[in-house]
Amino acid sequence: MAEIRMTPGRGWTDSIRRFFDGDIWYSFTRSPVTIVAAAITFLYFFIAAFGPWIAPHDPFDLASITLLDASLPPAWMEYGDARFLLGTDIQGRDVLSAIIYGSRVSLLIGFASVILALVLGVGLGLLSGFVGGAVDAFIMRVAEIQLSFPSILIALLINGVLRGVIEVQNQAELAYTVLILSIGLSNWVQYARTVRGSTMVERNKEYVQAAHVIGIRPTLIMWRHILPNVLGPVLVIATIQLALAIIAEATLSFLGVGLPPTEPSLGTLIRVGNDYLFSGEWWITIFPGAALAILVLAVNLLGDWLRDALNPKLR
Amino acid sequence: MVAFIIRRLIQSLFVMFFVALVSFSMFRFVGDPVHQMVGIETSLEEREALRERLGLRDPVIVQFGNYIAKAATGEFGVSYQHKRPVAEMLVERMPATLELALVSAVFSLVIGVPMGVYTGLNRDGFFSKLFLSISLVGISLPTFLIGILLIFVFSVQLNWLPSFGRGGVVDLGWWTTGFLTVAGWKSLIMPSITLGLFQLTLIMRLVRSEMLEVLRTDYIKFARARGLTNRAVHFGHALKNTLVPVITITGLQLGSIIAFAIITETVFQWPGMGQMFLQAVTTVDIPIMAAYLMLIAFFFVVINLIVDMLYYVVDPRLRVDTGKATGHG
Amino acid sequence: MPLLEVENLVVEFPTRRGTLTAVNDISLHIDEGEVLGVVGESGAGKSMTGAAIIGLLEPPGRVASGKIVLEGERIDNLPYEKMRRIRGKKIGAIFQDPLTSLNPLYSVGRQLVETIQTHTDMTPTQARERAIDLLREVGIPAPERRIDQYPHQFSGGMRQRVVIALALCVNPRLIIADEPTTALDVSIQAQIIALLKRLCREHGTAVMLVTHDMGVIAETADRVAVMYAGRIAEIGPVREVIKNAKHPYTHGLMGSIPSIGHDNERLEQIPGAMPRLTDIPQGCAFNPRCPHTFDKCRTVRPDLLPVEDSWTACWLYDGEDGRSIEASKKLVAETKADALLEKNDG
Lengths: 315, 329, 346
Description:
- In chain A, 70% of the residues lie in helices and 0% in strands.
- Chain A has helices at residues 12-21, 23-30, 32-54, 95-131, 133-147, 151-165, 171-185, 189-203, 206-214, 218-255, 266-274, 283-310.
- By secondary structure, chain B is mainly alpha-helical.
- The two termini of chain B are 29 Å apart.
- In chain B, 74% of the residues lie in helices and 2% in strands.
- Chain B has helices spanning 2-29, 33-37, 44-53, 60-72, 86-121, 126-140, 143-157, 182-215, 218-225, 230-268, 273-282, 286-314; strands at residues 170-172, 175-177.
- By secondary structure, chain C is α/β, with parallel strands linked by helices.
- In chain C, the strands form 2 sheets. Chain C has an 8-stranded mixed sheet with strand order 6-7-8-3-9-10-12-11, sandwiched between helices. In chain C, strands 2-1-4-5 form a 4-stranded antiparallel sheet.
- Chains in contact: A-B, B-C.
- Chains A and B meet through helix 6, helix 10, helix 11 and helix 12 of A and helix 1, helix 6, helix 7, helix 10 and helix 11 of B.
C-alpha cells in the first residue's frame, strides 16, 4: 500500500528526531541540577532492576536473620556493625537491604500504576476528543467529578472496595493488584483531558479530514498522526504522576492498606519503624524516609525540567 | 446573577447525585450488609427477616431512593464495626478535623501567597531561588514523612511539642474546641504545618506562575509606559489580576485539605473524621466509608459554590448585564 | 534643536545561539510636533526602536550602544526611577491591541485618574474632572457615565480612544504609537488615525508612528523612515519618499501597495524575504534581493547618503565610478516586477 504522508514531519520518527535536535536536549545538558536528578533516578531504576543481586543481605530470608543482630545502629555509630551499614531493625533485618528491596517494590508499583493511568487516560482522551458528542460529555463529567476529589481519597475508596469485594486471605498477593488498580484508576484524568484537547484540535485539521475522506481507519489516524503530537505534554504529566504515584503507594502502605511488612515497600518500612522513633531506634524509619524523599525529589526535578523545556512560552 | 446561581445549584445537585450513587453502590453491593451486622449464630430465618426489615428485598431504585432520603436527613446507617450510628460518630469527630483544616488553610495562605508574590516579582533573586528549592522539597515529601520528621525533631529530640492527640479540649455543646487552651494550640502546631505544607507549596507556585504571566501582559506594559510607580504596577495592577484565578484553585484546595487530613490524623493520632475513615477502610466498614464520601462531596460542592460567587464579585467581566458596549466606535 | 535625537542606536538580544542585533546602528530625529512614520515589514526593528526610546525593552534585550537624547538630555542611560518619571509625562506610548492594553479589572476612570495623579499634584476630584474632559476630547459620548465603566463594556474603537486618552492625559511631548490601528476594523481605523492626528496637532505632540501600513503613513506622517533588517534604508519627507523612492527596497514597497485608480496589471512583489536576524548578509542587507547590486553592495554596509531632500542607504548614490544621481534614480524608478523576478531565477 502506498505510504501516504500527509503531514510532512509530524509522524513518530520526526518527533523523536526533533527531540534530540532541539532545545530540549540542549537545556538538559546545560542544567547541572537536572543531570544530577536524572542520574539519581536512573540509579534507583538500576537498584530496582538488580536489587536482589546488589543487596548485601536478604532481609526476608527468615533463615539468615537472627535476633542477636537486632536493633543495631548505623555502622558509624557506637555499637554499630560494619556488616549492617545503616543498622538493623528489631528483628535483625538489615535496613540498607530492606531499603533496596523496598525501593524496588515502590518503583514497580509506581510505574505500573502510571502505565495503567496513562493507557486508560490517553485512550479515553482520544476517544472523547475524536468521537465527541454524548460520549465526550459523559467522560468529561466523570473526569471533572473525580478531579475534584483528592486522588488519595479515591485510591483509599477503591482500595477499600476491592478488599471488600475480593475475599482473599493472602494480603501480600493481593496488595500489588489492589495498589496498582487503586492508584492507576485515580490518576487517569490529567491524561484524558490533555489528550482530548489536542485530539480535538488535530481532528479539525485538514489532513485528518482528508484521511477520513480517503477512508483510512480512525484508529490509524489517531495512532499515526494525533498521538505523536500529544506526546510531549503526556510525557510531562507521566513524570509528575510517577512521583505522585510513588508517594501515593508509600502513603497507602504507611496507612496500613498497602503492602504488608512481609513484603514491604518504603512506605511500609517507614510505618513499621515509626513505632520505634521514641525508643531511640530512629534509623529504622529515617533512612527509608530519606530514600523515599530523595527518589521523589529526583523524579520531581526531572518533571520540572521537562515541563519547562517543553513549554513554548518560556523559551 | 440569579440565573447563574440556579445553574450552579443544579450542577451541584447533579454532582451530589452521582456521588450518592457511588456511595449507595458501595453500601449495597460490597459485601453483604446483613452478614456484617449479625453474629455467627444467627439463624437463616432471622437473617432473612433482617433483610426484609432493612428493605434489602425492595427493587434497587427504591433502595436508592430510601438511601438518598435518609442521607438528606442525616441518617447514614450504623457502623459495622462500632455498632453506633454513623451520623453520631461523624458529628463527634468533625470539630477536630475542621479545626485542623482551618488552621492549616490559614497557614498555607498567609505564608504561601506572599511568598508567591515575592518570587514572582523577584524572579531571579537569591531568595526566590531558595524558596523555590524549598517548595520543591515541600512537594516531594509525602505528608506523612513531614509529620514524622516534625515529630522526630520537636517531640523526640527537643521535647517541645506533643506528638499525639488534641491537647486540652473544651466542650461547647456539640462542638469541642482546642482553640481555647494553650495545650490545644501546642497540639495544633505540628499537624497543621504538616497538613498545610503541601498546600503552601502549591499556592506559592501557583501565585508565582500567575504573577509571571500577568507581568508579561500588554496592560502591565502600558501601565509602565504611562509611568506608574512600581508599587502601583506590581501591587495595584499585577497583584489583583494574579489573585483572581488563584481564588478558585485555593478554594478547591480547601476541600482537599479536609480529605488529606486522613494522613495527618493518622500520624498524629488526631481524633478526627479522617482517622475514622481510615479505620473504616481497613475493616471494610462500608457505612462509614459511604457516609464520609457523601460528606466530603457536600463540602466540596458548598466550597465550589462559594468560590464561584466570590469570582463573580471580583471579576467585572462576569457581570455582563449592566451597560453593554454601545455600537459605533 | 529637535525634540528627540537617536544616534547610532544598537539594540541587542543575547541568546544562547549568539547575540542577535535587532536594531543595527540607526540614527534619526523627531522635531517638536512632527509626525515621523516608521515603516517596514515585521521583524525590521521598528517596535524595538520604539521600545528602546521609551525604555521598555524586554530583557534580555538591551541597548548595546548609541545615544537617545530627549530635549537635549540623554535618556538611554537613566536609572529606572528617573526614566519612570519621564514615561507618561514626556514620552507616551500606544500599543496595538486596545483590548489587552487596558486592565480588565479596573474601571476606565480609575486607570485615568491613577495616571493623572502619578504625574501631577491634582486632588482626586480634580483628576476625575480632567479624566472626564479627556474622554470627551477623544470622542466618548456621555463621559460622566462611562468613566466608571470597565474596558469590556466599550467597543474596539472606543477602547482605543480610551487608550489615546490615557497616553495623552498629562500632555507628553512625544507619543510612540506602535501599530495603533492594526487590530481595529478597517472602518474604524480612519477615525482613530484622524483623532490621533487632530489631538497631536492641537497639543503640539510629536508622534513616532510605527506601522507596516503605507496608506496610514501617507495620510498622517510628515516624514517617514523605512526600516529593513534593523537598519534604516531611507528617510525623508513623506511625499518625497513615496513619490520618488530612491532605495530599491522602498521602491518595491511602494509598488506593492494596491491603489484604486491605477492600471496595474498585477501587484509587484519583492521576491525573497527579509532575512532573519541570525542570517543578515554582509554589506547591504538588501543585496540578495536587489536587482542592481555590484561588488561594493556585497561587502560594505552603506551609510545614509543625502540625495536631494531625503537620505538613502544605498551605494547607487555614492557618486563613485561615474554613477550619477539622476541615472541611479531612473534605474530604480523603472524597475519592474519582471526584472526582480529575473534576478531571482538567475
